[in-house]
């Protein structure tokens, strides 16, 4: 049941390429029917932003516990036994114009709501910790059946997550995401221009802060 | 010459435990004579800062290209073939009181200077990119034979790196590090209180910014 990646192919992102099976085993991510690999498009958008000096955002490597390494020659260490580890953070972070950005990218085939099971407790905890340090935290939500993408703030996610812990609700209704989130129009370059939504969010926070004073 | 970590020990950081051999192969890090594992102490300091809600700083997992995975059972995917990949960033980043922090930890047995070979071009490039986004970038330098630790700013490192590219100098003299860096006194909890130096650096930058206006 082992699978193989093509050898010698250059990859532009940090991440080892993933087969659909591996991704499913590891993270239960479902790819959209229409063939957009959401994570891959975000990685490309990050590469675009980096090339334009707009932001420095990287996906974190998959955490792996290495148990056994062979050294057949000095130049080629081969990992012969390793295990996937649970991450303690979200997948993406970096810096944009002095702001610390931290986010997860999630997708669903659902058409009317986003299942909470796509999020993990450690991600919520990490978002809470980063918010306490004045980081800009959010999730990018991709409704693959609708071809719609949303920015949803960490504050809002944490609030609704706490709510579902008491109400037992299994998902976040699309109507709430439409109302509290910011829709991202899929483009060409970058494909997922999420920094526009981030900028809008930062400006709206400034407005709130000024009103508070 | 490989050493082993005790099995079953819980690790608080993301990183898989490394054998000395693996670390040497991968990063050419030399451990200090007096037994302080510099990276491990920084990871513990980060855990301390996280537990006190002072900052959220994590070491990035080692990038690994996964080639072959076996699934003997649903719960235990075993990576059977994988390779170390070159990182594109520094090892540590996170958020502290609204600031994006980004740094590398390096050590030397030298007593009078810090060799430039401890740094890699991709780390310098990444630091330049993050500085352009107003991130707080630095390196933590550990002189294991002297038991002395320094904060050295990304701006200064980038400047001296560019200089050595033309002069061919092989190392950064301790005198320059003493003059331009901030010495960190090794403590108990956290062992490496580097955020004190970061705070001092941030305050000094504010002073410069005010003088500029």
UniProtKB/TrEMBL annotation, chains A, B:
Q: Biological process (GO) annotations?
A: chromosome segregation; DNA recombination; DNA repair
Q: Which organism is it from?
A: Enterococcus termitis
Q: Where does Mg(2+) bind?
A: 89, 91, 104, 123
**Localization per Swiss-Prot or TrEMBL:** Cytoplasm
Q: What is this protein called?
A: Holliday junction resolvase RecU
* Function of the protein: Endonuclease that resolves Holliday junction intermediates in genetic recombination. Cleaves mobile four-strand junctions by introducing symmetrical nicks in paired strands. Promotes annealing of linear ssDNA with homologous dsDNA. Required for DNA repair, homologous recombination and chromosome segregation.
Which terms in the GO cellular component ontology are assigned?
A: cytoplasm
Which intervals of the chain are annotated as region Disordered? Answer: 1-26
Kindly name one Pfam family recorded for this protein.
Answer: RecU
| Cofactor list | Mg(2+)
Q: What is its EC number?
A: 3.1.21.10
Keywords associated with the record: Cytoplasm, DNA damage, DNA recombination, DNA repair, Endonuclease, Hydrolase, Magnesium, Metal-binding, Nuclease
Could you tell me the gene encoding this protein? recU
User: In the record, what lineage is assigned to the organism producing the protein?
Assistant: Bacteria, Bacillati, Bacillota, Bacilli, Lactobacillales
GO terms assigned for molecular function? crossover junction DNA endonuclease activity; magnesium ion binding; nucleic acid binding
What family is this? Belongs to the RecU family.
For the site Transition state stabilizer, which positions are given?
A: 106
């Amino acid at each position: 049941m082992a699978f193989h990646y093509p050898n010698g192919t250059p990859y532009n992102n940090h991440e080892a390429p993933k087969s659909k099976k591996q991704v499913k085993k590891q993270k239960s991510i479902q790819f959209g029917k229409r063939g957009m690999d959401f994570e891959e498009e975000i990685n490309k958008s990050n590469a675009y932003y980096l090339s334009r000096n707009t932001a420095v955002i990287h996906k974190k490597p998959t955490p792996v516990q290495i148990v056994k390494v062979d050294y057949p020659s000095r130049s080629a260490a081969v990992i012969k036994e390793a295990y996937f580890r649970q991450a303690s953070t979200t997948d993406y972070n970096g810096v944009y114009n002095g702001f610390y950005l931290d986010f997860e990218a999630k997708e669903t085939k659902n058409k009317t709501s986003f299942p909470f099971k796509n999020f993990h407790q450690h991600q919520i905890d990490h978002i809470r910790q980063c918010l306490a340090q004045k980081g800009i935290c959010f999730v990018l939500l991709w409704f693959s059946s609708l071809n719609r993408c949303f920015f949803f703030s960490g504050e809002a996610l944490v609030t609704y997550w706490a709510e579902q812990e008491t109400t037992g609700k299994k998902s976040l209704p699309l109507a709430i995401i439409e109302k509290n989130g910011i829709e991202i129009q899929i483009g060409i370059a970058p494909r997922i221009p999420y920094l526009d939504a981030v900028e809008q969010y930062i400006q709206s926070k400034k407005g709130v802060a000024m009103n508070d004073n």
